[in-house]
Amino acid sequence: MNFLDWNKTAIAFVLSFATLGGCWYVGQTLVAAKPPPTPAIPLNKESEPDKAKGDSLKALITQANAQNGQHMAQMLCSVCHTFTKDAANTLGPNLYNIVNRPIASSNGYSYTPALHAKQKESWTLENLWEWLTAPQKFAQGTKMAFPGISDKQQLADMLAYLQTLSDSPPKNAEKK
Ligand code: HEC
């Protein structure tokens, strides 16, 4: 190829890119990539899946093995927590009566601001589930140095056990 041919090739390249760019611009202008104002598939209202989640969680826990949960608690939690009535707070707060107790409310325990900020909420089964799945995700900055439990059955067993730590445990939560 001589110099002129190279030049033509270069011009051809430039022109084709310019054309491509032009097409893209026109395409973008004509069909803007905006999401439609209403989704094509109606999304459920927020409360419905939450309720469904709560119900299925209860069902899961009803069938769980509290004894296995107790065993796990001894292995995983007892380094930092006590579980019996009126036992002292240790590295972590005492966990007697934890289910439905207001968050960060064990007398005399000094909580992090991360957990303190959630004081208006209670330890519902859902909150406990989220907390024990990933403490740092539930309350970023918490000092509970525990990575979380990812196995659903183990979590259910653990919550079934925590439910027994009460003067009046729900019927289905009595130790099996
Ligand atoms: C390494 C120590 C450690 C381990 C292990 C640990 N925790 Fe904790 N836990 C803490 C500390 C510290 C706090 C207080 C966190 C804060 O103030 O941010 C806490 C807080 C909690 C709370 C909130 C209590 C309240 O009064 O609001 C619950 C519930 C809890 N832990 C459950 C568990 C369970 C169940 C396990 C075992 C699966 C576990 N923890 C394992 C140290 C630990």
UniProtKB/TrEMBL annotation:
Pfam families: Cytochrom_C
Gene3D superfamilies assigned to the protein according to its UniProt record, in alphabetical order: Cytochrome c-like domain
Keyword Electron transport set for record: yes
Keywords noted in UniProt: Electron transport, Heme, Iron, Metal-binding, Transport
Keyword Ligase recorded: no
Residues annotated as domain Cytochrome c: 64-166
GO terms for MF: electron transfer activity; heme binding; metal ion binding
Family annotation (SUPFAM superfamilies): Cytochrome c
Name this protein carries in UniProt: Cytochrome c domain-containing protein
Native source species: Entomobacter blattae
